[in-house]
Structures are given as structure tokens and as C-alpha cells.
Amino acid sequence: MMISLSILTSAYKANKFIKYFLQNVAEQSYKNYELCIEHILPTPKEIRKVNKLIVEKNKLNYFVQSEKISLPAAWNNMIDRSSGKYICIWNIDDLRTKDSLEIMVNELESDKSISFVYGNYFIVDKYKKRKGSFINEQGRENELKTGMILGPFFMFRRNVLESIGKFDEQLISGADYDFAMRLARKFKGKHINFNLGYYLNAGKGLSTVKNSSQEIERTVVEIRYGLEVLNKNLI
């Protein structure tokens, strides 16, 4: 059977998250996937956990990165090594509802006119927590070309890359925002009114940690797509 979905996961200093993350992947109702992990400077303990916990070795596309690289560079490396016709990013410290992947794949399978899907999610401040701020993106389709409405749980067809390219490695925290702007300008997407997962915001992420480049990179993206003029007009 050909792989339908490639899950991209970058792991760096991930010992705290690996076990439960891999369990969460294994619990997914959708099974026709490959799990691509770019493991950046892993400790021997982390590697042992991956080897021990992955039951279906044929689903694992695993690469140990011997030097520190950026998140978008890791995503692009995994895109190059993957083969699924659909692609999704799954941060190692985020958790998905068990039907998350299946629901998203089914939407892409049933509607050939759409090229990406996204949905609702919770923002939580502690790992494995299930209560937090519920983000409902329904009815915000008109913002897809101006903000990061896709959120942390989105999926897209591989063939969009032929038109818009991969993630911009000049950016760090803003690479997904930039990618979203290109994606929404070229292709049609669909919102799924379903809780797709739990996004961890503990103030330690690339866009939330103190002294983050997020503000600067957001401005870069806004200028790149003419959004700074639009946003000023909205003030």
C-alpha cells in the first residue's frame, strides 16, 4: 500500500515528550502514514526511547541530525525524504485528538477542489493538559491571506509545493506564517469544525520564548505580502 500521509516532526531536546508523543501517534485512528522524525542532536537516551517505543518500524522515517539546524530546515529535509501525497506538521510537544488525522485526510479525499485543511484546537499551558483556551476558526476564512489562521494543526497536498515551494529557511519562528500566506493565495482550503488537538504554549516555543524573533519576522512577512498597509488601515 502506498503511503497517503507524511507526518513531519522535528525533535530537539525532546526527552520529556518522546514517549507520550509516540503513544499519541500510535493511537490515531488513521493508519496509512509515515512518521518522519528529524532528531536534532539527540541524546543516547532519546534514541533508545524512539527505538523502543516504535512498534511498527515500517512506519518510521527516522533521521539523526548531527548538527543544530532551524525548524524550517528540518521540515524541508523531511519533505525531501517523505513520500505521502498529503503532508502535516506535528510538533512533538503538541497532542492530537485520536480522529484528528483521519478527519483531515477524509476531507482532502472527498473534496478534490481543496488543497489544505485546518480546524479548531485548544491552547494549553502545561503538557498533556486538556483544558485551556478553545480556538474556533470557523467563519474566519477571509483572514487566511492575512493571518496565521491555519494554526498548529493543518494538512496540505504535496503537489502544492510545485507551485509555492517549501518553507523559507531565512525565517525561524515565522516560516509557517510565510508558508500559510503563499498557500492561501494560490489554493483553496477548508475549515473543519472539530477539535484537532492541544497546542502547548508554555512560553518556551520559538515564537513565545523571551527575546524571540517573532515580532521581527512577523513584520518581514507583513511587508513581503503587503499586509503592513492593510493592518495599519484596520487600526
Q: Regarding quaternary structure, how should these chains be classified?
A: single chain
Radius of gyration, rounded? 17 Å
Structural category: alpha/beta
Q: Which descriptor suits the 3D outline?
A: globular
Distance between the termini: 52 Å
Strand content: 15-25%
In helices, the fraction of residues equals 25-40%
What is the succession of H and E elements?
EHEHEHEEHEEEHHEHH
Low-pLDDT parts are none
Number of E strands? 9
Describe the sheet with the most strands. 9 strands, mixed
Number of helices: 8
Taking all residues together, what is the mean pLDDT?
A: 92
What's this, in brief?
The chain is built from 8 helices and 9 strands. The chain has helices spanning 18-26, 44-53, 71-81, 100-110, 161-164, 175-186, 214-224, 227-234; strands at residues 5-12, 33-40, 60-65, 86-89, 95-96, 116-124, 133-135, 154-157, 189-200.
Task: Provide the descriptors you would attach to this structure in a database record.
alpha/beta; 9 strands; 235 residues; 8 helices; 24% strand
Describe, in plain words, how this protein is organized in 3D.
The chain has 235 residues and is α/β, with parallel strands linked by helices. Helix content is 32%, strand content 24%. It is built from eight helices and nine strands. It has helices at residues 18-26, 44-53, 71-81, 100-110, 161-164, 175-186, 214-224, 227-234, and strands at residues 5-12, 33-40, 60-65, 86-89, 95-96, 116-124, 133-135, 154-157, 189-200. Strands 1, 2, 3, 4, 5, 6, 7, 8 and 9 form a nine-stranded mixed sheet that branches. Helix 1 links the parallel strand 1 and strand 2 (33-40). Helix 1 packs parallel to helix 2 (44-53). It is globular and about 45 Å long. The protein starts with a strand and ends with a helix. The mean pLDDT is 92.
